[in-house]
Specification:
Layout (H helix, E strand, L loop, with lengths): L5 E4 L4 E6 L10 H7 L3 E6 L15 H9 L6 E6 L1 H12 L4 E7 L10 H12 L8 H8 L6 H8 L2 E4 L2 E4 L3 H6 L1 H5 L12 E6 L10 H7 L3 E6 L6 H4 L1 H13 L1
Parallel strand pairs: 2-3, 2-4, 4-5, 5-8, 8-9
Antiparallel strand pairs: 1-3, 6-7
Helix pairs in contact: 1-11, 2-3, 5-6
Length: 253
């Protein structure tokens, strides 16, 4: 598994590791990480194939979970959103001694139905001719038809960087596109995690449904769910103050 790029915030208190979702970077959690960093040693991780972390030849949840576990030197609170939430759940199931508590943000331990939305995002990103790109605004305009929401476009374009060699995507888009089915899936697991679990859902999101509760409780019997009204899938971005408060209370229990 590739080397993981991390950013550390805070120098005292118990450890907390934050794992972002598909297309994201550790810095997406900076605002919340800084707030938690007053009382905790916080680590923001760029997941494999994202941000400044290394790329792999395939997407494999177990390998990603073991890579995150390799960062943990003592029992640690894990927080994961979407894809990162599935990774965090697997860390707790595969390495329970390294996880003190778990927060899963807007995802369930289930296989989701195929959706053309994310595939369309990646196709549009790959279609941009980076060699002739003159500005980030041009890239934004090129994505407008496929990604009409300006907030989502801004989020995706965080992965576009420019250096001396020109423009490049920080995400391993070809592999992410090929393995979207793996990302939507949930691998076969054994056992359960008996530590405390907070399950945060966006009230307007389709990723956490009542029918997912049985699967969640089977693996995480001490789970409690908090729904953030008016928030969609990117709960932490849309309602950072509420998510910060939920995490602060959960970590203090």
């Amino acid at each position: 598994m590739s080397d993981l790029h991390v950013t550390r915030l805070g120098d005292h208190g118990s450890p907390v590791v934050l794992c972002h979702g598909l297309f994201g970077q550790g810095r997406n959690w900076t605002q919340i990480g800084k707030a938690l960093g007053h009382d905790h040693r916080v680590t923001l991780v760029d997941m494999p194939n994202h941000g400044r972390s290394g790329w792999t030849e395939r997407i494999d949840y177990a390998e990603m979970a073991d890579a995150i576990a390799g960062l943990l030197e003592e029992p640690t609170a894990l927080v994961g959103h979407s894809m990162g939430g599935k990774v965090a759940m697997l860390v707790a199931l595969r390495h329970p001694g390294l996880v003190s508590r778990l927060c899963v943000v807007d995802v369930a331990p289930v296989a989701y139905r195929a959706s053309d939305e994310f595939a369309g995002f990646i196709d549009a990103m790959l279609a941009i001719d980076l060699a002739s790109l003159t500005s980030r605004a041009d890239a934004d305009a090129a994505l407008a038809d496929a990604v009409p929401d300006p907030g989502v476009r801004a989020f995706l374009l965080q992965s576009l960087r420019r250096d001396d060699a020109g423009w490049a995507w920080m995400s391993n888009l070809e592999v992410l596109r090929r393995d979207l089915g793996v990302i939507r899936d949930w691998p076969a697991t054994e056992g359960s995690f008996d530590g405390p679990v907070l399950w945060i859902a966006g009230g307007d999101s389709r990723y956490v449904r009542d029918e997912h509760r049985a699967a969640m409780e089977a693996l995480f019997p001490r789970v409690r769910r908090a729904t953030v009204k008016g928030a969609g899938h990117w709960v932490h971005s849309q309602e950072p103050a509420i998510v910060t408060e939920l995490l602060t209370r959960f970590l203090a229990d």
